Amino acid sequence: MSELKKIAGIVVKYKNKLLLCKRSKNESLPLEWSIPSGHMEKNETPIDSAVREFKEETNLNVNKDELKLVGILNSYIKNRTEKTKIIFVYGFDSKKELTPDLDKAKHGKEHSECKYFNKNDLPESKKTESMIKILKKF
């Protein structure tokens, strides 16, 4: 049995647009648009992990009391029922447009750019299909 990977991330919504970041070409999911997210540390709650990862990847702070869980994704090993990854997706309804500073972020190099997309015009691919479905509901 493989170890279950736990990941948490945050999507920001501002005026019905969602903030996504494009993964750098040498990172996991290269050149795919997704939310800032990462692996949970031992003894870390999903929401604390999401806040930490968001800060590390964007250099932006969010208050965890203003977040809401908008979805949970599960990944499975092909042709098996065993979960390999669980992703906790939190939403932040922002009153102002937040601009990530990838140059100052601790792990900003994981992304090449960030921008806002209209909820009905999100970039899709087979790799991020499940994530995009959750984002459209937020």
Question: What does this 3D model show about the protein?
Answer:
The protein is α+β, with helices and mostly antiparallel strands and 138 residues long. 16% of the residues lie in helices and 37% in strands. It has two helices and seven strands. The chain has helices at 46-58, 129-137; strands at residues 5-14, 17-23, 33-34, 37-39, 67-76, 83-93, 111-118. Strands 1, 2, 3, 4, 5, 6 and 7 form a seven-stranded mixed sheet that branches. The chain is globular. The model has no long low-confidence stretch (mean pLDDT 90).
In short:
With 138 residues, the chain is an alpha+beta fold.
SSE layout and pairings?
Elements: E1 5-14, E2 17-23, E3 33-34, E4 37-39, H1 46-58, E5 67-76, E6 83-93, E7 111-118, H2 129-137
Parallel strand pairs: 1-6
Antiparallel strand pairs: 1-2, 1-4, 2-3, 2-7, 5-6
Integer-rounded radius of gyration: 14 Å
Kindly name the structural category: alpha+beta
Q: Looking at the structure, what is the overall shape?
A: globular
- Which spans have pLDDT < 50 for at least 5 consecutive residues? none
Query: What helical percentage do the residues reach?
Result: 10-25%
How widely separated are the two ends? Answer: 34 Å
Strand content: 35-45%
Largest sheet: 7 strands, mixed
> What's the order of the H and E elements?
EEEEHEEEH
**Number of helices, counting only DSSP H or I runs of 4 residues or more:** 2
Total beta strand runs? 7
| Average pLDDT taken over every residue | 90
